[in-house]
């Protein structure tokens, strides 16, 4: 038996998230079915963590144990031929038996994209949250810095959270802005958050709150006082899922 | 009455092309319905030319005559609110009565995008034709140059063509390559063709033939001998529609 680890990109638009749910189409189900067609085995795919309905992935990581003798360098193309167009395995490697895509993950990066300005980019409408009016990007950048470090993120977490501890560490939080598109009179603003782990809806609640900072409804300092309040009600709304992408997952070598 | 000219982008994936066809959803129909909801008028939209099913547009141009008094600077946002997400009007202006989006057009540019290399970019899968094996881009670039100038393009034209004259002028033909994406082991290759006008399927047949040049099945010089043959059967297949985008339409100022 071999433990195989893969990196997979997907467009989450058509899926009810990553994790298998009875009666709903999920990414995990497609992967497990593809592997079954390829090997005849009923494997269970272990991911680095679920993503919500409509959320995308550039670099989701999963592993599974198989008796198949398919050479590892052929796995990606072989599996892609058995997957829908909106799921693409980008890399496959053999990992030690103890490797577990969720438990072994050391750091995760998410990206949230806001298209800010007059017109949306229609070819990216499934991937960019469109905000037509002015945003104060400097204030948003400042607000993000208050989140860096180890904090109790209970305020920025869905009340449906089931995790015991709501303490997480954010290693890096940055905002990058693409060049202004004169044609669309808008630009894409990317918010990158890297951390030890993320709570349920954490990135989307942070972005929903940060948008209020950008709109001038809150100040950058509020990002910190919301942390201190330890109350979900003190934060802003949960931003739409389609702007969110699981960017990268890091493992110790 | 005012003659209004608009520039419109659309994702052609969901449409049976631009031009109204009974019983099928087209871009023109959506535009005319949007204008009707806005003004109550049954207008006829005149485009710079039809685009086929699945073909996209960055800068399609159309005009229509209206009695509406909506200020021209409000037209784009007002109409966008009444259009589906995959059609976005980017600009509106008042033009002289004699302006006709098709007859007044002086030059058109199309772009065709091939994703060349191992993996497709799944977030652009509706816009890029994926070609997994090697392409000789230099030979393709050379092949394109044989098309520049005034020629009878009947070999590069669908047999369903209804136009009397098949002579057209290509002003510019170029191939641009994006930086190599190490992650996807592929890159996007964009073919831009600018001309006085294009025959039915002309860009797609040129690209389908050029792909054979890139694969080494033909030489760059064949692009010229195909012109001289004046026979559709001498050219290659019609490339898939989804890689094609109407890029820009030029009018005399």
From TrEMBL, chains A, B:
Superkingdom of the source species: Bacteria
Family: Belongs to the tRNA pseudouridine synthase TruA family.
Subunit description: Homodimer.
Chain residues that bind substrate: 110
Gene3D superfamilies named in the record: Pseudouridine synthase I, catalytic domain, C-terminal subdomain, Pseudouridine synthase I, catalytic domain, N-terminal subdomain
Catalysed reaction, written as an equation: uridine(38/39/40) in tRNA = pseudouridine(38/39/40) in tRNA
EC number: 5.4.99.12
Assigned keywords, A-Z: Isomerase, tRNA processing
Designated name of the protein: tRNA pseudouridine synthase A
GO molecular function: tRNA pseudouridine(38-40) synthase activity
Role played: Formation of pseudouridine at positions 38, 39 and 40 in the anticodon stem and loop of transfer RNAs.
Key word Isomerase present: yes
Domain (Pseudouridine synthase I TruA alpha/beta): residue spans on this chain: 8-102, 145-252
EC main group: isomerase
PANTHER family per the UniProt record, alphabetical: PSEUDOURIDYLATE SYNTHASE (PTHR11142), TRNA PSEUDOURIDINE SYNTHASE-LIKE 1 (PTHR11142:SF0)
Active site annotation, chain numbering: 52 (nucleophile)
């Amino acid at each position: 038996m071999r433990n195989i680890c893969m990196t997979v990109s997907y467009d989450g638009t058509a899926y009810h998230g990553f994790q298998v749910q009875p009666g709903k189409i999920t990414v995990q189900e497609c992967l497990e079915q593809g592997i079954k067609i390829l090997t005849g085995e009923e494997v269970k795919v272990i991911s680095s963590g679920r993503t919500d309905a409509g959320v995308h992935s550039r670099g989701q990581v999963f592993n599974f144990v198989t008796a198949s003798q398919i050479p590892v360098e052929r796995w990606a193309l072989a599996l892609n031929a058995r997957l829908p167009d909106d799921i693409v395995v980008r890399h496959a490697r053999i990992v030690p038996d103890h490797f577990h895509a969720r438990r072994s993950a050391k750091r995760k990066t998410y990206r949230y994209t806001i298209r800010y300005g007059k017109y949306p980019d229609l070819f990216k409408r499934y991937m960019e949250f469109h905000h037509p009016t002015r945003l104060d990007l400097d204030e948003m950048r400042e607000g993000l810095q208050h989140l860096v470090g180890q904090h109790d993120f209970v305020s920025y977490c869905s009340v449906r959270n089931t995790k015991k501890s709501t303490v997480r560490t954010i290693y890096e939080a940055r905002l990058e802005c693409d060049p202004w598109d004169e044609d669309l009179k808008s630009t894409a603003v990317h918010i990158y958050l890297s951390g030890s782990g993320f709570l349920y809806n954490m990135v989307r609640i942070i972005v929903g709150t940060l948008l209020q900072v950008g709109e001038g409804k809150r100040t950058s300092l509020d990002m910190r006082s919301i942390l201190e309040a330890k109350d979900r009600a003190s934060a802003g709304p949960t931003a739409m899922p389609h702007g969110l992408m699981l960017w990268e997952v890091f493992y110790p070598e």
